[in-house]
Amino acid sequence: MSDLRDTAMTSKAWPFEEARRVLKRYEKAPPEKGHVLFETGYGPSGLPHIGTFGEVLRTTMIRRAFEVISDIPTRLICFSDDLDGMRKVPGNVPNQEMLAEHLQMPLTSVPDPFGEFPSFGDHNNAMLRRFLDTFGFDYEFYSATDFYKSGQFDEVLLRAAERYDDVMKVMLKSLREERQQTYSIFLPIHPETGRVLYVPMKHVDAKNGTITFDDEDGREWTLPVTGGNVKLQWKPDFGARWAALGVDFEMYGKDHSTNTPIYDGICRILGARAPEHFTYELFLDDKGQKISKSSGNGISIDEWLTYASTESLSYFMYLKPKTAKRLYFDVIPKAVDEYHQQLRAYADQDEKARLANPVYHIHGHNVPASDMVVSFAMLLNLASVAGAEDKDALWGFIRRYAPEASPEGNPQLDQAAGYAVRYYNDFVKPTKVFRAPDEKERVALADLAQRLRDWQGGLDAEALQSEVFAVGKAHGFDPLRDWFKAIYEVLLGASQGPRFGGFIALYGVDETVALIDEALSGALSDA
Q1: Coil, helix or strand at residue 519
Q2: Spatial contact of 407 and 414, defined as CB atoms under 8 Å apart
Q3: Residues above pLDDT 70, as percent of the chain
Q4: 439-526 in CATH: which number?
Q5: Are 394 and 382 in contact (CB under 8 A)?
Q6: Whole-angstrom distance between the N-terminal and C-terminal Cα of the chain?
Q7: Of the given ranges (166-175, 178-187, 283-292, 321-330), which has the lowest mean pLDDT?
């Protein structure tokens, strides 16, 4: 373990770089609380989405890396801001009129529109926990409602009342003048209506720990800041939560980054050390726009898992978290194949290379072997030419190509074959456009077909690839990629495709000859 730790202390993999920053906090003395605390936050106004997965996954990767380089115990808290008032009715839930009657109520006081849980907040919390449990995350769940009402937050809330002017000074600098006139860090919860009120404070009594304000009808109220009578606005809540829990690390999206000095400043004013942060870039949809859970652009967790494994999504999340990335359906095949390439590489890597391999951060010390003897991209092309409606159709070709493979012995491949058929039918088939070859391409394809008729080299993918190359060179294609582009567009109805020698080996030499003949007769482009 000491050798592994030494290697990890110099690894350039970003989870280790972040873990070393967290460890540096305690280079002089271990934490008084006895552990290092990682946290992720969740706004339960809607269902969990792909960003939630990415945040918990990446934090888990850093936590795991920390556990390699340190013996200090760790915890991960997933914190749900379920005391927030419901600002608008989500468009994707039933009983819209009922929900509209409960606007500004804390989410845990809004009836569950699905009728399954005590409140809408409880429903969304249950969805979050089920979501996290599905992926096997090791975490503790915290509810803001419980946190405020149980008294766990009281000490920090009383300190916020004592240092009200200092906290307000931090906040007011970030607000427009008009907003400054009515702003308060405290949001009272109305004793009669139960609504979260956005009203100015008439008086904050630090000694007694109370606030005095007028409600929307002009009636004056005085409430204790403790016991769940009052909640904090979301920016002060961020810093106050860090102070109350002793958070050591929290990551968030780039859209929060301008607020970091506010969160940190409030945490310090309330008597605690600000945590380490990690700001990740946001995901973009197919048009390059920021993905938003309210607009529903981009791709959801469920949609990704319809076409590929959890591990491929974890791999995508690992890559370059500080770079904005398109997160759309067309990234899935590449993510699947690159994940399996890394699995295959891992087996022969030394310790340093292994710690830099994404699969180590996905699986920890239990990295599985890949059984994908056929790539996902190749499965898609096979599904295309075979017109496959189910994975059994693909297995006929796979068994001939790799006689030792089977659904039972190659479960990853079997699963991928099912995904490939689904992906092909939903995304590839509707966009396939075959074209007729020009005269130069027609002559070259006829030559390739004849060479394959005479082929005696069996299903050797590399030898077949060399033969395809030779045909392209013989017919003067320069650059050679124009020859392969022609093959894909004429035979597969796409502008790019697999290594064609590997495709021939998988699909079959005779079958490829028949496919070329079909294209040359005009049957494909006329269909």
Answers
A1: helix
A2: yes
A3: 98
A4: 1.10.10.350
A5: yes
A6: 62
A7: 283-292
